[in-house]
Design goal:
homodimer; alpha+beta; nine-stranded mixed beta sheet; 16 strands
């Protein structure tokens, strides 16, 4: 009889098998939520789970729940998983590791012919990335009751397609009510997407919670004018105003230290032309902040920078908060279990906070939740060169399997 | 018999009649070179000129030459005109004033039944703006021999349509060889597109030449990474690098004073996403500089700024000069004639340099050339609110008529 353990080769193969769907040709993946490649990887995931004897349920937002029945099927499930959608130039591990490790956990129990008390449910959450439909962590947010289903279904991509239409196009608008799958807890294995574990040579990150997240949409309006005939001193250059704002924001985040990061990720100059001074610039800010107090400090400092730019450049600046998620704190008992499981398996670990938001952050508001991180090369993610060592994937999945064994009961 | 003079109402009407083609609905015009609206305004211009008895010739690049024959048809023509294409959010006067004033000069001679010695030729140069096909001042550049016809015909817009295809689509690929129309001199009336005339209450700008023009394409590559999980201190943010560069360039241009202006008009973050640190940013620089020495000063200072950014941020920066036009000097006798004509007509005038490039700059390298400026409101151009007073249009056209009368001989 096979011993209960992760098959490292099989896990590695399923990660790379899934990478064929939306393969960018440069080592990365472009698989935006609910696009044709997302459909293909979903079909693959469903077939793989069904082959392992799971029932696969699809909810109204397309989230997928593969259930391996336990002896006591009426008990809430032990939920594990992550997401299969990627950034436009995403990598092969972000989200995918967590789902493939979930599948591997199921396969490990099947190989060992071990029945658990509780059912185990591997989840693929719809639209974690938020690259096509905003905001990200969309389906887990609705599952946790922090966002309305109807508004979410009506959310549009840039070409005007709604989430509802996109779900129907790929035939993933399920009948199961969002939030009705009885998850009793949730565990998410993920690459760190930051540099700390690698820098310290630690294999397992025991994640105690996540930074808060604030998204802003900004716009600066000045005066569009002829680039050749307008003296520097008489310009109201909206893009120059944005440069002041971006560098000011960067200084503020650096001053706050490790408790905050801030990023301007999208910039659009309206009707841009190389010989016209930009008169209208839109941009986004993504800020991740440790706690509410630090959020206030950052917002006050940014407001002061903005007042100065408006005054100095004669431009108008508006900034709208479009998403605000407080910092998440994971379940103490599950966090302790993650640390103990890492130790039991002989892996080094450290406790840490997540800089990125994850589906687990939403789940933590309704059920006991924890996350496990493994290192990724150079801390790089949301990039085609994103990479995690095979042994680190094995380590993370092994800690996950150990936790599931404890929580599901054998 | 009608006295030889500009009909102010008729000039004003033709400016606004032409504005129906590509009307943006916000008071401005979007009439990109060789698009359907450009075709419509060309048809209107041709019909208007033919109605005045002109022969209209179209060259291989679609430039239009409306000739009112003089007594001595073998003498080189007195050329006048400008362009009818606009910026994406352009105004009703940039270029259009010069062409409509040319038409009005023909009408004035016809009304007064005055035959001239030399023929008068009103020109509409194809693609002055360079918004759709690059570079701008395209057809006048080929006419003056400073650019190759074949390369120009092969130039592509963003959707991959070539100049040759675009000309054929709108049926404006003429048979007349570029450069073969015998212009003996060229006069261009234009709005100033800058603030000086209005600020000083002067009606006529006697333009002695134009600033040199340098266009650069730039690219900054850093590392695209997760916006939440990457500490500020470990980022290689390409957009932050661009902000440093833009503000550095602005400081350099301000320090040089009135001899230079520089603009970053187009910015594109590759695969932009609000939760990804930009790893790849492309941008353009438009610099207008009084002389070659000042160009060297600006380029050296910019190079030093770039070296600093590369070192400090660990990003790569490339900058390619894609267009370089030396400063233009107009014909001394024609410039003097412009000043004398303004005085004769009783208008205040000042001598000045043009900040913008114009078709006249190309023409000045092969034939005696001059320009006349009139004020525009707040110095604003390349903008839907661009506006010139009716009386100032009259003044400019009247000076033009006076110059043509002298040059063509009656």
């Amino acid at each position: 009889m096979t011993k209960l353990s992760i098959n490292s080769d099989r896990l590695w193969n399923s990660i790379h098998e899934s990478a064929q769907f939306g393969d960018s040709g440069n080592g990365g993946i472009c698989r935006l939520a609910l696009d044709e490649h997302d459909k293909a990887v979903r079909d693959w995931f469903r077939a793989s789970c069904e082959q392992e004897g799971c029932d696969v349920f699809i909810d109204e937002l397309g989230s997928m729940f593969a259930v391996r029945k336990g002896r006591n099927a009426s008990e809430p499930y032990v939920g594990i998983g992550s997401h299969l959608d990627t950034q436009p130039t995403g990598g092969r591990f972000d989200g995918i590791l967590g789902v493939c490790a979930g599948l591997e956990v199921i396969r490990a129990f099947n190989d060992a012919r071990i029945e658990t008390d509780r059912s185990i449910c591997v989840v693929n959450w719809t639209n974690e990335e938020g690259s096509r439909f905003q905001p990200g962590m969309m389906a887990s947010g609705v599952f946790a009751g922090s966002r309305s289903l109807d508004e979410t279904l009506a959310s549009l991509d840039r070409s005007g397609v709604s989430v509802a239409e996109a779900l129907e196009r790929i035939n993933y608008r399920g009948r199961v009510a969002v939030g009705s799958i009885p998850l009793g807890c949730f565990l998410e294995l993920h690459i760190e997407q930051g540099p700390y574990l690698e820098a310290e040579g630690v294999v397992i990150g025991v994640v105690e919670g996540a930074y808060g997240l604030s998204w802003y949409n900004g716009r600066i309006t000045g005066t569009s004018a002829h680039a050749g005939a307008t003296p520097m001193t008489l310009r109201r250059d909206a893009f120059a105003g944005l440069c002041d704002l971006a560098l000011g924001l960067e200084r503020i985040a650096c001053r706050i230290g490790t408790s905050a990061v801030a990023t301007i990720g999208e910039v659009t100059i309206a009707s841009q032309s190389r010989n016209t001074i930009p008169g209208d610039v839109s941009f986004t800010i993504d800020a991740r902040i440790k706690d509410a107090e630090t959020t206030s400090i950052l917002e006050a400092a940014l407001s002061s920078v903005i007042t100065d730019i408006k005054h100095r450049r004669g431009v108008e600046i508006s900034l709208e908060n479009v998403l605000s998620k407080p910092a998440a704190r994971f379940d103490t008992e599950l966090v302790d279990l993650a640390a103990a499981s890492a130790e039991l398996k002989g892996y080094s670990s450290r406790r840490m906070l997540s800089g990125g938001g994850h589906d687990a952050c939403h789940l933590s508001s309704i059920i006991p939740t924890a996350m496990i991180f493994v290192p990724c090369r150079d801390g790089i993610s949301h990039n085609e060169v994103e990479f995690a060592e095979k042994d680190h994937c094995l380590a993370g999945a092994s800690v996950l399997l150990q936790m599931v064994t404890t929580l599901a009961g054998t």
